[in-house]
Amino acid sequence: MRLPSLLRRTPFRLTLLFLALFVAAAGAILAYVYFASASEAQTRARTDVETELAALTAVHRTRGIDALNQALVERTIRGGPYLYLLTGPDGKIVTGNLSVMPFDLKEARRTGTGEWSTFRLTSTDPDGRVQTRRSIGVIMPLAGGDTLFVGEDIGGIEEYLSRLTQALWGAMALVMLLGLAGGLYISRRVESAMAGLNRVVQAVQDGDLKVRAPIRNSGDELDELGQGLNVMLDRLEGAMASIRHAGDAIAHDLRSPLTRMRAKLEVALIDAEAGKIDGVDALGIALDEADHLLKTFNTVLAIARLQAGGAPDPKPMDAGELAADMAELYEPAAEDKSIDFSSEVETGLMIEGNQPFLAQALANLIDNAIKYTPAGGAVKLRARRRSSGEIEYSVTDTGPGVPEEDRERVVQRFVRLDNSRTEPGSGLGLSLVTAVAEAHGGRVVLDEGPGAYGGFGPGLRVALVLPPAGQT
Hints:
5-stranded antiparallel beta sheet; two-component regulatory system
């Protein structure tokens, strides 16, 4: 049979385990207390009996049998815990407060030394009830054939130990009941808290990512688990939203390039049918548009991946070395367009990032600057450490620049300003740079360039600001 839910809970089982350990420990302590007390009582009784026996044998040795008999009579009349019995050479009782000798007289006389033993003493209490009490005593043969027995009733000690044992067992039973009740209470509390977490898990399994675990503000491990679960759900909901947004964005963003591609293919088809171009040229136009569309798709997909999951596989790298490589790569392209290209690169600019994505972002910035800067202008690439400790890539040109009111809009996908309509492109360059910056925990800042001078300007300065290594 399957146990009830409450009995299968870990807190209840732990309660039972601790109760079992407590009972075992308490039982061991109780046994030790009982046997230690009994042993101590018996040892003390033996000492008392030995002291009393030594006193009586001294009376017999110095004053004779009659004085011993007189001392026993006085002690018996006076009362006390001691038991006395004096027998003559013939084994008959002379005096004492016992009616029967607890020992074998022949064996005692044969050994000639004191023989100890415990025995049960039967007596009648004032109410007439028969009692059997534990006693301890020693028998000592005397000169002349007499035998002296001295003992002590230790039944009172046994009664005390019995009452102590009963009290301890009662206390143990009470503790067990209270512990069991506490275990049930704690199990119900934990079961209630866990039921809330289970409901959240079940809701998430059913597809509801907006549900959150309740927090009781108790600061215990269940609250920590609930907070961790909520953080995980926040990130999961954000990731799912990013994935959905990425899919929607790709579908939306590719609509215009596909429409443009279809229009160009349709024009090429019409021209080919009219004999203005041949079929090879029409296929070339189709391939060019397909390549452009594929490049656009890869860029949009890269942006979506960065926004959904951040920079993949970040590693420590020197931002200055990357800037130097990019300057060396684009310097010939700037010379071909008669643009003065320069760079100012610091070394030891350590960051944690994905080098291919950062290289692509820098390439987009430099390519845009060269593309929109007229011949005779200038482009400058810098890599430096800001006073705040952040690492900054910046590309400054003397092109037409971007009006201040358009700087927030120009970093969006497929946004192209009027002065760039004549240049090839898809409007995704700055969008990718922004996605790379955000994926690395940084940002993109657009400012005016060096200003209008000699027919050039006002220019544009685009800065890619990244946190240093260890602060991403």
